[in-house]
From TrEMBL:
Pfam families in UniProt: HTH_5
Name under which the protein is recorded: Metalloregulator ArsR/SmtB family transcription factor
Record key words, sorted: DNA-binding, Transcription, Transcription regulation
Highest taxon in the source lineage: Bacteria
Xref: InterPro entries: ArsR-like_HTH (IPR011991), HTH_ArsR_DNA-bd_dom (IPR001845), HTH_MetalResp_TranReg (IPR051081), WH-like_DNA-bd_sf (IPR036388), WH_DNA-bd_sf (IPR036390)
Originating species: Mesorhizobium retamae
Keyword Metal-binding belongs to the record: no
Signal sequence extent: none
Domain HTH arsR-type: 1-87
Amino acid sequence: MMLSDAFVAIADPNRRYLLEELRRGPKTVNELASGLPVSRPAVSQHLKVLLEAGLVSAKADGTRRIYTVANGGFFKLNLWLDQFWEE
């Protein structure tokens, strides 16, 4: 993952909403779409961007995919951001 991809991914308010929801626990696309004023396919596209940035992961559960936060992607963001607070 390139760090810039993660920043692009979190720049969108809908994707930040998805991350906040996933922080509360694993969810399916349908569960995530119920809280947004966008279509289920749009939520899937947002999740694809988050997956490619390494910020979420997906696991197959029958015909559904369960999405969760990928801590490793956030660890890299934190490392980069933390350099601005250290003196």
